[in-house]
Design brief:
heterodimer, A: 354 residues, mainly alpha, two-stranded antiparallel sheet, B: 261 residues, Rossmann fold, 2 domains, five-stranded antiparallel beta sheet, globular
């Protein structure tokens, strides 16, 4: 058991090093467009992971993710923009004096984005988590829209519907994938801790979980808040990636894109979410072809924007109908699984030889 | 501490116009095994749900070790020391046998989430202790050899036993068993009877059980309450219950109907 633990740790370190080398190669040899796509994938990975904790592990059907992202994006943007560009952008109504002068470095701003989103997570969670299933989905969807509308209307803080521009641009793949990897590691620790088991107990059977002394509401709130925290971080990164934020970015349709990542990757599989985030983001770019006019045997199909989403919707339908567990199901791509497989092959080989 | 581990004082539960339980006064002495019997729909499980805080009684009060727990929330009551099993088995289906038991230790966890995420020593120590305590518990009930199997893949009898073990892991002083012998053949229910008695002695528990198997109830209960349509029909030791004409009537039908057949 101990031996296995040590070999698992060594393997983890090796993979982390390998990831670093890959990131290094990507940063130095890929063109800006590919790096951008990869960075977007990292953001979707963080979103997928955090939603998976809420939906896949705790079984709460919450659709408020875009709202928390919105809060995170605005927090980070306001904290990092230079005072000069703030003066320039807020021409409708000047920014509140407290925020006019702040200019934080990158990482504190990202953390702050997570913290503010988490605070709103608690605020939304306290009333909303008394509901469950579809009702929770409707309530959280409503809260996400409320957040968006409020953001549109507090002009002296968020610049209203004009949005924010000139957010410091961050292109380094290290920042995005660094955050994604840290998110993965932290959430892995959470779900394999005693709390993670409590979350899963609530998902499996609320009544039994309560009978085991687990406070349902408290644990749901913890899970929801952690989810909101990482959604906020993803929002902050989104702002740094496209250097502008405006309220229309965070419509509830965005939440469904995250839902797609979670469902395709497998509800209850963290590594599944990361893999499906990569696959979906890359497919999004590849499938741009279908939105161009296509010549098909002399027949010209006019380019329809939104065709990609049709394809994804069909994909989602197919997954739900025929392959409900998604890419990974509740399995994790982890060392236990690989070592077991190795052992299995070894013993089979030995069996054949004998 | 009073000698009564659990005392309910005229508890009544009404669902709209339906009186599921009416003015029930239970007394469960420390260290005893008390049975709660009655025909289907008599309100037995409702009594359990009131004791464990799933329902709040419409009137009356529940005292556990001298403390009023009426209307307290389920999870708080478990922490106070009342554990229960369910009529229809409610194991956590995505987890192994060991994980099912370890869940029960979560509320006794001394460390916080932050310590868990960063693997600080206090959490590691607590979680190792939990692991050992649970393994020991599983060994005591001979489930340690299947500890890494999916809980729902166990045969029915073992699932029942696992549910009891899971309840024991919350370190209760009162154990509520809701039809532990349901769906068991006579040999299995005799086994279970021994098991319950052994558990009671080993963990110094008080047991309140709902059961339909008369041989089980009569065999191990020190005291029996009979419910019918929410009303307490009779109470007393097994012999008194067996000879009580009202109980016989409730279970077997009135005498004159019997005579016609």
């Amino acid at each position: 058991m101990d031996k296995r633990k040590r070999s698992k740790n060594i393997l983890t370190v090796i993979v982390l090093l390998l990831a670093c080398i890959l990131l290094y190669l990507a940063q130095n040899y890929l063109n800006a467009f590919y790096i951008r796509v990869l960075n977007l994938a990292a953001i979707f990975a963080i979103l997928g992971l955090s939603m998976n904790l809420v939906l896949g592990f705790t079984g709460m059907f919450s659709l408020g993710h875009s709202g928390f992202m919105c809060i995170g994006a605005y927090t980070a943007a306001i904290l990092t923009m230079s005072p000069a560009s703030k003066e320039l952008i807020y021409y409708m109504e000047p920014i509140v004096p407290v925020l006019a002068k702040v200019e934080w470095p990158l990482f504190p701003a990202i953390i702050a984005a997570g913290v503010v989103a988490a605070l709103f997570g608690i605020l939304v969670g306290i009333p909303a988590l008394r509901l469950r299933d579809d009702y929770l989905a409707i309530a959280t969807l409503g809260f996400a829209e409320i957040i968006r509308i409020v953001v549109t209307n507090i002009v002296s803080i968020t610049n209203g519907s004009l949005g924010l521009k000139n957010i410091p641009s961050v292109n380094s793949i290290w920042v995005y994938w660094g955050c994604a990897i840290i998110t993965l590691l932290i959430l892995k620790r959470v779900i394999s801790s005693s709390w993670g088991y409590a979350f899963r107990a609530i998902r499996d059977n609320e009544i039994a979980a309560e009978a085991m002394g687990i406070s349902i509401f408290k644990h749901k709130l913890i899970s929801f808040t952690i989810g909101a925290f990482f959604a906020g971080i993803a929002g902050a990164l989104m702002g740094f990636l496209i250097t502008s934020v405006d309220p229309t970015m965070f419509k509830f349709l965005f939440t469904f894109q995250i839902l797609l990542v979670v469902v395709l990757g497998g509800m209850g599989s963290l590594t599944g979410s990361v893999i499906s985030a990569l696959v979906i983001t890359i497919m999004m770019e590849v499938l741009r072809v279908v939105e161009q006019p296509i010549d098909l045997f002399g027949l010209t199909i006019p380019g329809l924007s939104g065709m990609r989403m049709v394809i994804f919707s069909i994909l989602l339908l197919l997954v739900i109908l025929f392959y409900r567990q998604g890419l990974m199901g509740t399995k994790e791509f982890n060392w236990d699984w690989i070592l077991d497989k190795l052992k299995f092959f070894k013993s089979r080989k030995r069996g054949e030889a004998a | 501490m009073s000698a009564q581990t659990l005392r309910t004082d005229h508890i009544t539960m009404e669902f709209g116009g339906l009186r599921a339980v009416s003015e029930l006064s239970l007394e469960v002495p420390a260290g005893s095994i008390v049975g709660l019997i009655g025909p289907n729909g008599a309100g037995k499980t409702t009594v359990f749900n009131m004791i464990t805080g799933v329902y709040k009684p419409t009137s009356g009060s529940i005292l556990f070790q001298g403390q009023d727990i009426t209307g307290m929330k389920s999870d708080k009551i478990t922490v106070q020391g009342i554990a229960r099993t369910f009529q229809n088995i409610r194991l956590f289906q995505s987890m192994t046998v060991l994980e099912n038991v370890m869940i029960s230790k979560h509320v006794r966890m001394q460390a916080n989430l932050f310590e868990a995420v960063f693997g600080l020593p206090r959490y590691t120590r607590a979680s190792n202790q939990n692991y050992e305590a649970c393994m020991e518990l599983l060994k005591k009930v001979e489930l340690d050899d299947v500890c890494n199997e999916a809980a729902t893949s166990l045969p029915y009898g073992k699932q029942r036993r696992l549910e009891i073990v899971r309840a024991l892991a919350t370190e209760p002083s009162l154990l509520l068993l809701d039809e532990p012998a349901a769906g068991m053949n006579p040999a299995e229910s005799l086994d279970l009877m021994d098991f319950v008695a052994r558990v009671r002695d080993e963990f110094k528990l008080t047991v309140l059980m709902i059961e339909h198997h008369m041989e089980v109830v009569m065999g191990i209960c020190d005291k029996i309450y009979v419910l019918d349509y929410g009303v307490t029909l009779a109470q007393g030791n097994p012999e008194e219950i067996q000879n009580d004409p009202k109980v016989i009537e409730a279970y077997l039908g009135a005498v004159d109907i019997d005579a016609k057949n």
